[in-house]
Amino acid sequence: MPTSFLDRRRFLRQVASGLLGLGVLGEVGCRSNQTAQVVKPGDKQMVGSHTAGNETYGPLVDQAVGRLLARHGPNGIQPASLVQGAQPGQPRICFVGVENKSIEELGDFKEDLFQRIDKRILESQVFQSISRKYVEAGLNQCHLRPDDLMVPNNMRLFTATMEQMQQPFEFLLFATVTSGTTRSNKDYQRSYTLTLELVNIHNGQADKDGAELEKRYNVSTMAKIKGMFQ
Q1: What is the mean pLDDT of the chain?
Q2: Which of 19, 139, 215, 218 has the most CB atoms lying inside 10 A of its own CB?
Q3: Would you identify the CATH topology of the domain 54-217?
């Protein structure tokens, strides 16, 4: 093996070792100096370095809910029944939750996504949303999960239970988060999709829409150098 190649490899090892050593020292020195800032409206959002965060899920909710509800104006759908508090032209919608089928754990974003979607529905004034507490109570009383509602007998049991609670509804809303990953060595690009499916409980007709966002994750140069010698 040529001496020049050995010298070059030894030099690269020394450089990598020095860089990693500086990185470790930097981490130790800064570990106790954590700071925080209040993010004000209009400020740039922090971008998650390893997984999706507010910069991803916020736009997905805005686009998916906006497009779905845009097709259902106040005169587009008439409710089968109106209860106290509902306005004419406002069908009642039962939002049963967010299902995660992506590669990432949603963590506390699962609850955040539910609240964001529910809030957008209420603000649109296209539908009247049933309180989540009633929905959860109805599912628990019937011993059902959201996926079980597509079975006709289960649907009849659930709708009857909700009517007993004075919470009839015309539509079910399902939300699903999915992802797809494309890799290039240690770097990768991930697509995130939020799909909303609206199901008419009277005729089974479904309407679906969603939004997609692409995000790239790049490994640092120091990590790539370290990987060369592992």
Answers
A1: 79
A2: 139
A3: Rossmann fold (3.40.50)
Pairing of strands 187-200, 206-217: antiparallel
| pTM across the whole model | 0.72
223 Cα distance to chain centroid:
29
User: Structure tokens of 78?
Assistant: 């008439």
In this structure, are residues 212 and 192 in contact, taking their beta carbons and an 8 Å threshold?
yes
User: From CA 198, how far away is CA 163, in angstroms rounded?
Assistant: 20
More confident residue, 194 or 45: 194
CB atoms within 10 A of CB 10: 10
Residue 53 corresponds to which tokens in the numbers above? 């965060």
CA distances from 32 to 26, 29, 36, 159, 209 (A): 11, 7, 13, 55, 46
Q: What percent of the chain has pLDDT over 70?
A: 67
How many other C-beta atoms lie within 10 A of the C-beta of residue 106? 17
Residue 55 exposed, middle or buried by CB count within 10 Å (0-12, 13-18, 19+): middle
